[in-house]
Structure formats: structure tokens, C-alpha cells
Specification:
Mannose-Binding Protein A, Chain A; three-stranded antiparallel sheet; elongated; disordered C terminus; binds calcium ion
């Protein structure tokens, strides 16, 4: 999901936690004037825990995403859900606040889209599964499953650049 280019009017300044950051510069009276720092996308999805990187339980993953200025990923549509996964991966949905009332971890985003696998969420085995991961297997790829929050998994953060995106 990460974009790899800045637009022609922008210049790459580098990556912040794997999210590409561009700056937009204009020339004014022979001085370069920095107008803004922009991400090419208004949101950036940041994967952690791919390959042999550190993986985390759902609560730690949420804390880490918040430290980066975002939260665990809110998935609002099929496009945002279309990520290439190699291992089941945490997203920001849980029913930790109220059983069977699934909500995003940022506490404000409405649940606009879900992609539950068949028969999910199911609190499998009569246990209270409270956190949602996306399946990575070819057959069920990208579908959602409620599962145990204390499992160590890769995770996806979503960082929004809404206030600095001035194009
Ligand atoms: Ca549950
Ligand atoms: Ca389940």
C-alpha cells in the first residue's frame, strides 16, 4: 500500500517508519520556501512484523502504532483491505470494550466495512476471542478472524496525514 513516488511538484525527503514523506517547495524571490511536508497519500499503512521482525500481541501493537502517530489499522473498504500478507496480521478491530460490539481501536472511527471469514467472529472453542487478525493463507487471504489477543503477530498501523496534506 505504501506509495513509492512523490509527485512531480514534490521532492522525496525520505521515509518515516517506512512511510514515504515528500516536501513541496516553491521559489519565491530567489529563496526556496518550504511550503509543507506532505505524504503522497493522505493515509499511510505501516507494516510491522514481516519476515523475522518483532511481532507483538494486539495491545502492544496498538501502543506501538500510537507511538508512531497513528493507531492500529482501520480498514474502511476493500481497497484498504487488499494487502499482501504472509502471516496472519493484526488490524485495529476488537470487541474488548463490549463483547460482540466490534469497534476500531482509535475509539472514533465507525465500522464502515468488514470482511469476516465464513462463520466469524466465532469466539472459537467457547473462548473469548477479542481481537481481529487478517488471514494470510491463499484460500482465506484477507478475510478476518476474531482470535486471542495475546498471540504475537505482525501488525498494520494506519497513520493519517490529513492536516499537512495541502495539495
Ligand atoms: Ca469476542
Ligand atoms: Ca475466530
Amino acid at each position: 500500500m505504501n506509495t513509492t513516488e512523490c509527485t512531480a511538484a514534490q521532492y522525496i525527503v525520505g521515509y518515516v517508519n517506512e512511510c514515504l514523506i515528500c516536501i513541496k517547495i516553491s521559489v519565491l524571490n530567489n529563496f526556496f520556501l518550504l511550503l509543507s511536508i506532505v505524504s503522497p497519500l493522505s493515509v499511510c499503512f505501516l507494516f510491522k512484523g514481516k519476515s523475522n521482525e518483532f511481532r507483538a500481541n494486539w495491545s502492544y501493537a496498538r501502543s506501538w502504532c500510537r507511538e508512531q502517530g497513528g493507531d492500529l489499522a482501520v480498514i474502511d473498504n476493500q481497497y484498504e483491505n487488499g494487502k499482501e500478507l504472509h502471516y496472519p496480521t493484526w488490524i485495529g478491530l476488537s470487541d474488548l470494550v463490549e463483547e460482540n460490539q466490534y469497534a476500531w481501536s482509535d475509539g472514533v472511527s465507525p465500522v464502515l466495512y468488514t470482511n469476516w471469514n465464513e462463520n466469524e467472529p466465532n469466539n472459537a472453542g467457547g473462548t473469548n476471542e477479542g481481537c481481529v487478525s487478517m488471514h494470510a493463507s491463499p484460500v482465506f487471504h484477507g478475510t478476518w478472524n476474531d482470535t486471542k489477543c495475546d498471540q504475537a503477530k505482525p501488525y498494520i498501523c494506519k497513520i493519517t496525514f490529513g492536516t499537512s496534506h495541502t495539495d
